[in-house]
Write a structure and sequence with these properties.
By secondary structure, chain A is mainly α. The first copy, chain A, is about 65% helix and about 0% strand. In chain A, strand 1 and strand 2 form a beta hairpin.
Amino acid sequence: MAAQDADIFDDMRHRLITGEFGYGTKLRAEKLRQDYNCSASTVREVLFRLSTVGLVDFQEQRGFRSPYQSVERQHELTHMRILLETEGACLSIRLGGVEWESRLTAAHHKLSHIETRVRSSGDLIPLLGLWSRAEQEFHETLIDACGSGLLKRTHVVIYEQFRQQLVSAETNYGYFPENIREHQAILDAALQRNEDLMRVCVNDHLARNLTRPLPRKSYPDAFGKSSAI
Amino acid sequence: MAAQDADIFDDMRHRLITGEFGYGTKLRAEKLRQDYNCSASTVREVLFRLSTVGLVDFQEQRGFRSPYQSVERQHELTHMRILLETEGACLSIRLGGVEWESRLTAAHHKLSHIETRVRSSGDLIPLLGLWSRAEQEFHETLIDACGSGLLKRTHVVIYEQFRQQLVSAETNYGYFPENIREHQAILDAALQRNEDLMRVCVNDHLARNLTRPLPRKSYPDAFGKSSAI
DNA sequence: TTTTCTTTGATTTTCGAAATTTTGGGCGTA
DNA sequence: TACGCCCAAAATTTCGAAAATCAAAGAAAA
């Protein structure tokens, strides 16, 4: 029975990302110990490792919780995704070769196929898991040739927290036609190797998750102070 | 005897950041257990938490190590710092008020004071710890008004790993005059609320840690393919 | 000599219980 | 009723040892 710890870790991560636990729910060690038939320390260890990647909140002497959901958090995660994905995608354009292009095209094809099925059936729910993974694959491939493992790891961490925050499939489904168009636009920008266009596309695609706009750029006025805000 | 765990965590973090353990050194649980007079599980837990913030590498079944040093790693950390600090600083310019300006000025003053002392004594070593902390304080204040806790937390994580990688105080000292000038330039850009200038200043300040330039922007040529590389 | 297998010692992982700390309720007092 | 205090239950943290796994050295085979 190898790597029991790793199995529990993966399973817990899946349960957390799919939102099985409510937001802010306390993760009781005893309960999980029974779920996995292991000791309390093992559970504790796994939860620590999950807090490593932001999927679990840890507070000294008061245990572990599934993170709270808030507009702030969603906002910050989106902002970070925009920052990392635009940078990663532009670097990929600079550094990636035909091999990267082909992998991105493949990922888009798979995603596109699922999106078409969803649109024709009119129901996202049964394909939600499939679609979710395909979208993640597409976005990860987008930045895959950026040349920085650190950037990619950081992005995964943010992406999974982002995914965890999305509750209702319905909300998401409302934007499905836009989604399809935007993914296509991103692919096109990549194949055209147009960085400025890429920035715009990624921004447009992600900014939909913002309930209020990101702060606009300010320009110094006569006094050298900000004129915005 | 409250919060023993937290104390061990802080102490270990300090030891790691100051480079007490060599790069890639195995962190033996037994040794640390004796250092802190605690049990193996406590050590294990602390090491897990330190791997949370990238100060320790963890590999299943083969324990914990102080991270290896490599040009790649230094490069990636620098790149990430540039990305996060330029974004954070520009957002602070947009969102921060006079209160932020004054805190940044204060942090700069403290740092500047130490730097002057270093330059007049001609020896960085005795003030290294002090200077190190003052520089961190300055850089953290720079992005402090950015409005995103996530961005700030991510920055700390990157910054500490970056600090851990810097070995020789000598190498650093070679650039001391530049450092002083650059910190001043960053402060000026902040007070002028000039975002474009800020980007340039932060870039110049950090890019010195790169042994080779970051990939330059590519422009689509007639075939829509990259012309750089 | 080189390769592969096996044994042994060291390290990591897991366990269940004891010690510590927090949480929540009940009680008395203002 | 509101407030503070104390106690009991529940949860978290720490412990030391047992179980599982890995790594190095030596023996056997090619």
